Amino acid sequence: MSGRPERLWPLFAEIQTLDGVGPKTAQALGQVGIDAIRDLLFTLPHSGIDRRVRDTIRGADMPATLTVPVVVGQHRPPRKRGGAYRIEVDDAAMRFQITYFHARPEYLMRLLPPGSRRLVSGRVELFDGVPQMTHPDHVVEPSESGTIPEYEPVYPLTAGVTQKIMTRSVANALAKTPELAEWIDQALVAREGWPAWKDALVAAHAPGNAADLAASAISRARLAYDELLAHQLTLALARRARRARPGKITHGDGHLRAIVRASLPFAPTGAQLRALEEISADMARPERMNRLLQGDVGSGKTLVALLALLIAVEAGGQGVMMAPTEILARQHFDGLAPMARTAGVTLDLLTGRDKGGDRARKLAELASGEIDILVGTHAVFQDDVAFADLRLAIVDEQHRFGVRQRMELGRKGEAADVLVMTATPIPRSLALAQYGDMDVSVLDEKPPGRQPVRTALISEERMAEIVDHLRGAISEGRQAYWVCPLVEESENSDLAAAEARFAHLRGALGEGAVGLVHGQLPPADKDAAMARFSAGKTAVLVATTVIEVGVNVPKASIMVIERAEAFGLAQLHQLRGRVGRGTAASTCVLLYRPPLGEAGMRRLTTLRETEDGFRIAEVDLEMRGAGDVIGVAQSGVPRFRIADLERQAGLMAIAQSDARRLLEADPGLVTERGQAARTLLWLMRQDEAIRLISVG
Ligand code: ADP
Ligand code: MG
User: Fold this and answer.
1) Residues β-bridged to residue 515
2) pLDDT tens for residues 152-169?
3) Residue 456: per-residue pLDDT
4) Other CB atoms closer than 10 Å to residue 454's CB: what's the count?
5) Which of 274, 296, 301, 303 is the best mutation target for the ligand 1 pocket, counting ligand atoms within 8 Å of the beta carbon and taking the most?
6) Domains in the chain, start-ordered, CATH in brackets?
7) N or C: which end of the chain has fewer CB within 10 A?
8) Closest listed ligand to the CA of 534
């Protein structure tokens, strides 16, 4: 594709080419990412000042910004240097003062000559009962009253740039802005009543009242949609490019799946079957699968993964599943081993722990195709790990991995289908922003028979009571996790806290009853501690957050989280998800250190009130903002200048289907609208997408 469309050139000119923007201003704006004229245009006012003219300041609720015509009275220069220079003025009903500091008297005499009429606008405050306007924002002759906007936009500022400079630069920038052909679906534009792009920009920079500043104001909504559409077009192009690379047709005959399903003590849920249906259909297609399996904690993703892996084996190929921690990789291995044995499938485990001859043997068996399914940590991606015929690669708990690892996975096994699984119930808007290039299956149904987890907030001052309760519970054969937080900066002191709690609980509950697991333990000790707990030999497992993700010991029914206020919502939800996995009623105790701050309180009460991961994710998003929730830097989701992911989830969904539809109807983006869409991509600096257009 040719270069940037000529019509856009003025918008990509450097900010310094604008009248009134010197090198200093340009540099200051550059600091906040405003380099080109387009960047300035997309920096919208965040508030506004009402400057409607009134007769008098009398009766106004001060302090306030007020605009009144006045007759200028006496000047009273300061008595000592640096003091206030006061000018008396009369409006229609009362006298007040305009005050300046460090102003030259000649200048003030010219600006406000005694006896003249002026329109003044500025902030008025009471000092010793006398209203005073200090350094008015505007002083104009009555004939020029039109130069004071009734509602003045206020821009987010950076050091070295004043509102005046911003307002003037934006006006100059708008004057250079061309009209652009419409890239949004006409029907949508009509339905929403959206203005054309340039009109929307002009309107967004000239709000008439506070309502015009809301994200829902039509001009802003349109500009937000432009950003979302550009992002979704990029994702749609990426998705198409990925699909265009040839994959393998993997068609299982179902015989292994049938054996495993017959051996299960339960029936798959409807949601699990639906997801499998979607996965097997993808695998049977010649394009590569790129699918996200989203399911809250405990929704049964592992079974879906196993059955999907069996499809690969049924077709004579191999599968690999990568887990983010060694504990989890081992757990998957242990959990899948009996089923693999039943089905006569060869399963193996590869982690960073495998060294020397053992590792060499596993690699050889992978290369020869003897191993059907490999489970492991990111060790499975090392360069020397080669498969005979890799058909399916699964990443469990994908949010634990960076985007780079997700991409590495795609490269391994040239044509392998990719399934990523995540328990992070990110709200739909974020899922679309982050995974818009993928197809999504959702496990929206939990296995039957689960009982709600009763969640209690208890002050750690009542620790002794909790321990007493725990003693009672374990004497009835129940099992508990006790999670110690990562509160301190240094890992060592956290460890010390966990070890101290371990010693304390052993003292209180008996030596043999309590185990300990944390990240610093030698791997073999970690395994042993998990295995003892899993087998019911220890009743209580003291742990750091290493158990946060994926761990599955269905019999454990009590979760105690110490200093719960120190954890994030998503993390607490994951931790609590370790219990409530069996049929027994479960309890989660959130121990907090009083006094509980407002945010901590909101997190803990949210958790007490709901187990719905999506609801929890929404509160999380509300409290922390989109960037923090998904880690914008590594997720590849851009920071939108105008769009607000938290509040414009609906628009994001529309943008996704609009983008996909446009690409289906016009794969080369050659129609009139297609051309306009290219312009949008250039405008939004979606260089990546522009490269991809030619691939389609
Ligand atoms: P997650 O989605 O959090 O990874 P798991 O796959 O670990 O969940 O499953 C949680 C528990 O639910 C496991 O003990 C698993 O055996 C069980 N399970 C999975 N599917 C079903 C089902 N259809 N019916 C009953 N229990 C199930
Ligand atoms: Mg899991």
Assistant:
1) 541
2) 999 988 888 888 889 999
3) 95
4) 12
5) 303
6) 6-48+157-213 (1.10.150.20), 52-148 (2.40.50.140), 255-443 (3.40.50.300), 453-610 (3.40.50.300)
7) N
8) 1
